[in-house]
Amino acid sequence: MAGRDLEPPRRSIRQNESYEQPRKKKSKKAPENPFDKNSGMSFLVANGGFDLPFFAATLALVTIGLIMLFSATYPYALQNEGDSYYYFKRQFIFAVMGVIVMLVVSKFNYKFLKVIEKPLFAVSVFLLILVLFYHVDVNRNGEDFKRWIPIGPVTLQPSDIAKFALILVLAGYISKNYRKMKYFKEGVLFPVIYIGICCVLIYLENHLSCTLLVFMIGLAMMFCGGTRWQYYVAGICFVAVIAVIVISNPDVLPGYQGDRIRAWTDKAFQPLGLRWQTNNSLYAIGSGGFWGVGLGNSKQKYLYVSEPQNDFIFSIVCEELGFIGATLIIGLFGILFWRGIKIAQRCEDRFSSLVVIGIVSQVAIQTIFNILVVTDTIPNTGIALPFFSYGGTSLLMLCFEMGVVLSISRKVNTKNY
């Protein structure tokens, strides 16, 4: 054994030495790519299925609106245009175009709207200024209305574009400043500047009803965006004071606007003038009863309800389809609003959620205002019923907006729907 060399024990790690694995460097999070293919959205095309109840409700409203437009307008169209199908044919063309536009837009990546929000708002402001100087001359009862830009055989109503542009720019602003929306400067002052620009320009068109609608859309988006409720209480108190002053002194409003307030408060005011349309609207609703007189059997549409293709088409709906039919149509609007809110709640980003809220709020507010006017609950403001009232630009823009909601719903469906 002597002379035998002993080898020291082998160690995998030397004693009294610390061993540390090299730390992995934290990689900086890459900025969100709005067109990431793995996010369910490709560069141009939105993947996934859209919200079927929302689409079905939209299609039903467009279809029923066309049927009721023809039924309500053929005597008036024959009398004034010499063609019973005059309003129906023109609206039908825009309805077909609108449905095609809705389906095409629903396939586009909605995040493109983030890129065009400010340019579109700038274009809409330009058109609102342009229409004040270049417009179709419309004069009623001594009042000039500057609402439509003539483009060949058709007309363009800039206020319809402005409503959507305002929704986009507010959605973009609020989504970038949502943490500051509780402060007055970011939560009230800046959004009101955007809203005020549109409201002032639309009011100069002699379009009070659309001014109120745009104002209400803006308030709805501010509320959902996080503006403090205390500011709303102060605003409501201010508006209430103004409303009391205006109703008590209609002369503070210019021209026909003050007369409409007077006609609402005094039911005997100009029964053959400003009260004519409202009175005959009430006659139509009352004669419809529970079941209605039947499709096409209205009597008030025979030149009693003046311009039945526009603001007071719902009175003819009530007369022909009765309480049941009117309730079902209101139910369709309710489904549209409900599904829109569901889509907004499931959106992953604030921008898309606010866009959906703005669009469905526009339809809801406009529908409520129209029904309140037709039933003489509020003064006659001249606001149209979505999908029913005659107007190519309005119907086309509505279908475009519905396509935007459907595009956003595709992203929702690919994630957690």
Describe the structure.
The protein has a domain at 111-306 and 316-385. The chain has 417 residues and is mainly alpha-helical. Helix content is 62%, strand content 3%. Strands 1-2 form a two-stranded antiparallel ribbon. The protein has a two-stranded antiparallel ribbon with strand order 3-4. Helix 9 (274-288) packs across helix 10 (313-345). Strand 3 (149-151) and strand 4 (154-156) form a beta hairpin. It is globular, with a radius of gyration of 29 Å.
Keywords:
single chain, 417 residues, mainly alpha, two-stranded antiparallel ribbon, two-stranded antiparallel sheet, 12 helices, 3% strand, globular
Summarize this structure briefly.
The protein is an all-alpha fold and 417 residues long. It has helices at residues 52-81, 86-106, 112-130, 158-176, 184-204, 208-225, 229-248, 255-265, 274-288, 313-345, 350-374, 392-416; strands at residues 138-140, 143-145, 149-151, 154-156.
User: What is the strand content?
Assistant: under 5%
Tell me, what's the shape?
globular
Mean pLDDT: 85
Main sheet overview: 2 strands, antiparallel
The total count of strands amounts to 4
Strand order of the largest sheet: 1-2
Structural class: mainly alpha
* Helical stretch tally: 12
SSE order in H/E notation? Answer: HHHEEEEHHHHHHHHH
User: In which range does the helix fraction lie?
Assistant: 55-70%
Q: How many angstroms separate the termini?
A: 81 Å
Stretches where pLDDT falls below 50 for ≥5 residues? 1-6, 11-21, 24-32
